[in-house]
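pasting Baseplate assembly protein for the record, 825 residues
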Amino acid sequence: MSTAASGGGVPNPPGRPALSYRITTHGDTLARSLAEVSRRLPELTTHSTDDPAVALLDAWASVADIVAFYQERIANEGFLRTATERRSVLELARSIGYELRPGAAASTYLSFTVEDTPGTPGRAVVPAGTPVQSVPGQGELPQTFETGAELQAVAEHNAIRLRLRRPQLVGLGTTRLHLAGTTTGLRPGDALLIRPVTRPHVWQFRILHTVEPLPTDPTGRPPTTVVGWDQGLNMPSSKPLEVHVHALRLRASIFGHNAPDWRTMPASVRESYVAAADQRDTAAFDQAQFDEARFGPATQWPGFALTDPPEGDAGPVIELDAAHPALLPGSWLVLRAPGVQDELYKVVEADQSAAADFTLTSTTTRLQLRGTGNGNGNGKVSQFDRRATVVHTQSERLQLADEPDTTLVTGPGLWLERPVTLKPGAPVVVTGTTDQGVPSTAVHLIDTVAEDGTRIVLDRPLEHPLDPASVLLLGNVVAATAGQTTEEVLGSGDGKATHQRFTLLHKDLTHVPAPTASGVCDTLAVQVDGVTWTEAPSLFPLGPHDRSYVVRIQDDATATVVFGDGERGARLPSGQENVRATYRTGIGPQGNVGAGSLSLLVQRPLGVRAVDNPLAATGGTAPERPDDVRTRAPLTVGTFDRVVSLDDHEAFARNFTGIAKARATVLRPAPMPFLHLTVAAPDGAVPDDTLTALRAALETDGLPGRRLGLDSYRELPFILRIAVLPAPDREPESVSRAVEHALAQLYSFERRDFAQPVTAAEAIATAQRVPGVVAANLTQLRLTGGSVAVTSLLTARGARLDAAGTAVPAELLVLKELTVEVMTS
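structre below
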């Protein structure tokens, strides 16, 4: 486009921020006027403004300059790119069906605490629309939020803790057990028998090295005894097993273990024992030992070796060297000897007896045994030496206690301390700290609840692994948005009037996130003669009987309700103050209050003790600026609220309220590709409510059946430190501030894009372009937590699939720490 001016047309190439449209200027008009006067009135030789004639020409030149100036301004206001007045931008955008976004109300979740003192009902009903006000900080105004749905709150859901102990299972390598109570009577050196419930023949025998009683503590931990041993269990199963644990209270020896050495006995004694051995019962007589005793150098008493019963007979019999009346049938018994694998037996019979042999006499306990058959000896006692064998028996079953569950909680499944009555789909707030002590709070929706109510499954895993002892679930949670409800009479309908208009008394009509093309919907409800009329985006598609209206937000934030003319929308029926409205007021970023700010109940529901917002409010955005409209308005013409291509997805998302950046990427996993959309809000991460509304809108306006991934970006914070040498004639502090401002602008959130790298060269070049900078030296450029102090390139990746096939959103490098130092030389 070009315009006529003195000397020819004025070029206006594309992309200019303003049009050149002035037909003339003061100096040009005055010069041409004087030239024309000189041609027509040659007698007027003076050009001084002191002359009345020249002064008159100068005055009209000023008028022409003013007219030309406003002509150029009017021309600029006629184009979307060059318009500066908000009203001009609003009307130009409306010409293509685009309405300036009114902004959105902040949203958060409120957690209510129900009275739980004895004698109280322990439940409360929080109606929808319950107002909660914030405690303002310095320089702030109180903000009012209202609940979006009715909440049936119960005291049991005030703060739900996780189960900190779990049923104890043992497996390969286990070296400790938790036993119930602190009166087990165990001491280091005592013996334990451990038998899996499902595989009882796979038993384990251990000698205790540590015994640690743990009494009840203030947290409610039950009294337990922790016992430990050195050698881990050798379980054949790779999966942990449920076991039975027995303490073997008695440690005994077999009768004859302390008999004198046979080789030291007199010959007469040995001869008598050899002769007596000839009279022994054949079942217990050892012929080889007898022959060795009579004819060779015998080393042991005749009949000293333990013997096994013949095949088909009852189990082996042993005699303990003392009376043990507490040893009863049914007890477990373990034989141990050096160089021999331990053998487990069941005591079938236990009788008090007496024995005289090997020059010894003693009361004994005679035991009839039954082997388990799982040792190398297959239950044979003949492999055990009478002197070296130790008998562990008199078993007592010990009760296992639940073991502490110290595994970091990752979700989505959570075991709870007590049963709950939460419903699937209900929101819960999960708070806790990581193993590094970093606090974490997030809102989740319940996916499923176990039948007994002790286990719930969340809609997604936790954002960070949390210490189970720190985790709290807040169950009395309800969504809330900023704004205060107002009811008013708009006026009276007139059946003869067309396009009746009513302006709401209060400004800043609240808009909340919604799955629409714009991303928001207002909270206005209009009733005429008690009948609710519906809001429409435009009167044009309406018929003569459609009870609808449109809402127009003016430049001063007032809202006007416009009704039809009988052809495009129904006229209002005549009546006296029959048009009423209910709406909420309050919008913008001032509603983004911090966590813990909303604590004042304007109207306290019966049974409610307190209220709080565990998470900061998010999503509050200011009305759209003209600069934003220049970018967004053309996007609607490109997509027409339908989404097909990658560009359509990006344009649709960027035109959605609360979204400032969008990047669409096709990911190609097996068996079929899908589209992933990474988004960012104007000031950072996108709230979950906005993501949910955007997904719903995309599914409505996009292709059916497509696979769509939608995530907020992944932030990569980085640190930048630079030293600059100012010119000698410059103030060092001023130069330092100018460099800091230039770098802050370069790496501001608004100017960064997904997967955009940061280079050392651009940082140095930006600093050196600042007037007064002689030299610049980068002293630190690294990711937060990075090990290398200075790197030449920081990279950010686009959306991709990780090793597990899960979509990972695009990354965005964000400046978190900027330091500018001044070099002295």
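Residues 405-475 form one domain.
Residues 52-76 form the longest helix (25 residues).
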